[in-house]
Specification:
heterodimer, A: mainly alpha, ABC transporter involved in vitamin B12 uptake, BtuC, two-stranded antiparallel sheet, 4 strands, about 70% helix, B: alpha/beta, 6-stranded mixed β-sheet, 4-stranded antiparallel β-sheet, 9 helices, about 25% strand, globular
């Protein structure tokens, strides 16, 4: 057993890791720090602007929730080592075909929604299949789909209706069981009770007098929280989650160990398309319309949220919770600058700075984990 | 090897052609349980082709492979792994960013029920990983330590321990020591010795005669797709092996200069 003793001795050379350093290598760390900083800043500079009263909170929560929904899909895909640049165009395309099915074709809303999901998830599978079969970078393949899908999102409404915007969805969706899963609000009774007991403000004038300023929790937020929970659970607690890390960490090594890398990647492209379509459906319900320009630049916003959340662009490392925090930072800052009365174009400056900071921090964290110098 | 022990794998007159290139021209080798069979050869001698044939990646053009005395027909490497033939590759099947425990069970994740769902049994995985690593003489800081923080030798050891844990009867090691320092090499050779004593057949591919002599029971030298016979420990000197690997040519003249230290 002399070898074992040797190993014991050599173990002394492994420096014990300090708790601080250990905390540092959690992927969510950047997101947590960022969230705290952002909230402290806005409480100082916009604390009295109404940003933190119930309506203000609802405002930035909803904006953040939109980012969160697409960030969950983008996060899992990025950890598996791939990108999807077609997310934004997918949102535009999905909302457009859904609106055309419901208006031009006159289908019931639930059918329009289901068929749209079937089409977009298939397109996600096509994205994945092309990437896996050709071995081309997903960056290029999905960039092609960014243009293809946006092109169709603009072309289709012109071809069918001769305009770029299709409206009147609300009337079709009225009372539809599936539409309410995307467009409704929950806990209305609870908020009415809060309003009745003066725990939150109520409208004092107009047709809504007596109703609470917040009617209920929009399904947008419910979807965001549910997707975060499911994504986090799958990634950290299941076999498939281990496969996601493995596929992104080193796909060849994963294959050698019997991980079905191709299947994992294709499924995640489909999941990303699913998330994009969820957001598209929610927007169609909320605005009662579809617009060819919807979802513009959303793919980059999703990727930025994921990177702020600690995921590595090269794959193999990241966290859904981190991505959710990244999306929260995104939403809070975008709306917070408005509340604080700052010129909104500065939002982009902030975005660039925080993205750069996050990437540098992530690279440093990666070095700690892998022991590279 | 005594005659009452049955060979695990018998490779008989294996030939493998890639188009017009003859990579293997009639190689015969027997692998017995509990032995460390060293496969020596210079670059391009056909070592890699030979082990890929053994592990089901390539089908031989001619010749028979018997596994546990039955003709072997593996459709793909997965079949070979299930039958108990595991390969630890030169470029490891380890993912630096993932924890040792997640790596150890990659592709073989233990699951437990969680309501209607099946979830990754992290507690079990961590426990087994720590125990297996201790057995191999590696003390981890914890099962969540990333593989990237391990040395090259320790990574090899994790890969070997993993293969053995998942029931490998034959362990094919493709140049496990070629990129390692002296101390790490010693650790890997010690691991090979432990595994062999558990009754696993080890096929150790190397072009370093000293590493082979340190743990090998039998030695087969490949040269230009042919075997020059199998020698037993004690019946062959390092210089002879070296000579056979080089085909008895160039190195002979250098021998005086290098004093057999190659």
């Amino acid at each position: 057993m002399s070898q074992a003793n040797e190993a014991m001795e050599s173990d002394e050379r492994v420096k014990s890791i300090s708790p601080l350093r250990k905390a540092l290598i959690r992927p969510e760390l950047g997101g947590m720090c960022g969230t705290v900083i952002v909230f402290v800043l806005f409480i100082i500079f916009a604390g009295d602007s109404g940003m933190f009263n119930p309506q203000g909170v609802m405002n930035w929560s909803q904006v953040s929730a939109q980012f969160m929904i697409i960030a969950v899909g983008a996060c899992l895909l990025m950890i598996a080592g791939e990108f999807d640049l077609s997310v934004g165009s997918m949102i535009g395309f999905a909302s457009m075909i859904m609106a055309i099915f419901a208006t031009t074709f006159g289908w019931p809303m639930w059918l329009a929604i289901l068929v749209t999901f079937a089409i977009t998830i298939s397109l996600g599978a096509v994205n994945g299949l092309i990437v896996v079969r050709t071995g081309l970078p997903s960056f290029i393949v999905t960039l092609a789909f960014l243009f293809i899908l946006r092109g169709f999102a603009i072309f289709l409404p012109y071809a069918f209706e001769g305009k770029s915007n299709i409206g009147g969805i609300k009337e079709i969706a009225e009372g539809d069981w599936l539409a309410s899963v995307f467009g409704g609000k929950i806990f209305k009774g609870f908020f009415q009770w809060l309003g009745d007991n003066d725990l939150i403000a109520t409208f004092t004038r107009g047709t809504k007098a007596g109703q609470p300023v917040i009617e209920g929790i929009p399904m947008l937020i419910v979807w965001a929280l549910a997707l975060i929970f499911i994504g986090h659970f799958i990634l950290t607690r299941t076999k498939f989650g281990n496969w996601i890390f493995a596929a992104g960490g080193d796909s060849e090594a994963a294959r050698n160990s019997g991980v079905p890398v191709d299947r994992v990647k294709i499924l995640l492209f489909m999941f990303t398309a699913f998330c994009a379509t969820v957001l598209a459906t929610i927007q169609v319900m909320e605005f009662s319309s579809a617009d060819a320009g919807r979802g513009l630049l959303k793919e980059f916003e999703a990727i930025i949220a994921v990177v702020i959340g600690g995921a590595l662009l090269t794959g193999g490392y990241g966290s859904v919770l981190g991505a959710a925090l990244g999306a929260l930072i995104f939403g809070v800052v975008q709306q917070g600058l408005f509340f604080a009365g700052v010129e909104s174009s500065l939002f982009r400056v902030f975005l660039g700075v925080i993205l750069l900071g996050a990437v540098i921090l992530n690279t440093y964290i990666r070095r700690i984990i892998t022991g590279e110098r | 090897m005594s005659s009452d022990i049955k060979p695990l794998i018998q490779m008989k007159n294996i030939e493998k052609h890639f188009g017009r290139v003859i990579a293997l021209a009639g190689v015969s080798v027997d692998i017995y349980p509990g032995e460390c069979h060293c496969l020596l050869g210079d670059n391009g001698a056909g070592k890699s082709t030979f082990i890929k044939t053994m592990s089901g990646v390539h089908k031989p053009t001619k010749g028979d492979i018997l596994f546990e005395e039955k003709p072997m027909h593996f459709a793909d490497p997965r079949d070979a792994i299930n039958a108990g033939i595991a390969t630890v590759h030169q470029h490891l099947a380890m993912i630096p960013l993932m924890s040792v425990s997640r790596n150890f069970f990659m592709g073989n994740e233990p699951q437990k029920s969680f309501g209607p769902l099946k979830i990754f049994d992290h507690a079990h995985a961590n426990e087994v990983t720590m125990a297996e690593m201790r057995k191999m003489g590696i003390n981890l800081r914890g099962p969540d330590q990333a593989v990237g923080t391990l040395s090259g030798g320790e990574r090899q050891t994790v890969a070997i321990a993993r293969a053995v844990h998942f029931g490998a009867k034959v362990l094919i090691l493709d140049e496990p020591t070629s990129a390692l320092g002296v101390r790490q090499t010693a650790n890997v050779l010690a691991t090979i010795d432990k595994v062999r004593k558990q009754g696993v057949a080890v096929v150790f591919i190397t072009h370093n005669v000293r590493h082979a002599m340190a743990v090998g029971d039998r030695f087969t030298v490949l040269n230009r797709g042919k075997t020059l016979g199998t020698a037993t420990r004690g019946n062959v000197s390092p210089a002879e092996l070296q000579d056979m690997m080089a085909g008895g040519q160039e190195l002979a003249s250098l021998d005086g200069m290098m004093e057999g230290t190659v």
